[in-house]
Structure formats: C-alpha cells, structure tokens
Amino acid sequence: MLTPTQREAEEAEIRGQIDKIIDGLRAKDLEALKRPYAPGVVSFDIEPPLQHLGVEAKLENWARVFAVFGDVTYEVRDLALTVGDGLAFGHAFARLSGTLKDGTAVDGMWVRVTYCLQKIDGTWLIVHDQVSVPLDVPTGRGVVDLEP
User: Fold this and answer.
1) 11 and 83 in contact (C-beta within 8 Å)?
2) Is the residue at 142 inside a domain?
3) DSSP structural state of residue 41
4) pLDDT tens per residue across all 148 residues of the chain
5) Does 96 reside within a domain?
6) What is the CATH number of the domain that holds 44?
C-alpha cells in the first residue's frame, strides 16, 4: 500500500508522462510520443480499426494527424488519477485542434480519454488507452459538439 507521500510522487510522475504526450503532439515529434507508451500498448483510439496493437500502430494515428496539420494544439482537462502499487488508471477530456496545412483553423472536438498505466522497470508506461465520443443512440452518430 502506498503512503500518501508515495502516492503523490507516483501521481506526479504519471502526470509528467501525460505532459510528454501533450508536448510531443505540439512539437509533432513521433519519437517523443513513443516514450510514454509500453511497446505492447493496446489502444482503442478514435480512428478505426477497433484496436491498435503496439506503440507503432498508436504512432501511425498521430502520423496521419501530422500529415494534415501544420500546427497542432493538444490539451488535456480534468485529469483524475487512481494510483496503486504498480498499476494506475486515469481519465480526462482532451482536445486536438490547430491549423491545417492549407491554413484552415480547426477548433477540434472534446473527447473522453482513459489511460491504464503500469510501472515497468521503474517507469510508468501507458499499457492501454481509450478515446471516445458520446453516441447519439437513435442516429448512431457520435456527438462531437459537447464541452467539459
């Protein structure tokens, strides 16, 4: 069982890993984005297919974003973490926005994100993430105009 001081230190390290994602996206740096993820991460990302297996598959999604965006802004809001001995999870809202390569400004949309982390060789790494939007059941369409 973690003491409150230990839990606080572990939480700060995990928040640092999420910050690496934010910084990597803003810099459009795939190598930096690779660092917070475990090699075998399973990602249920917003884009098809239903699951992306491995960090290279996760990075392919970001490479597609970088191919169309000139400038990328990424923000994470209301990150809540639960930290245990070697396992942690968190949830937040996130938004990708910026300027497309053709100069069009894009406000983006807020999505829900869940992170599952494991302490591997002394470092917290994301072993699973899930990104989603709420679903309007009658139409079968995602609801993308909500804000936290």
Assistant:
1) yes
2) no
3) E
4) 889 999 999 999 999 999 999 999 999 999 999 999 999 999 999 989 999 999 999 999 999 999 999 999 999 999 999 999 999 999 999 999 999 999 999 999 999 999 999 999 999 999 999 999 999 999 999 999 999 9
5) yes
6) 3.10.450.50
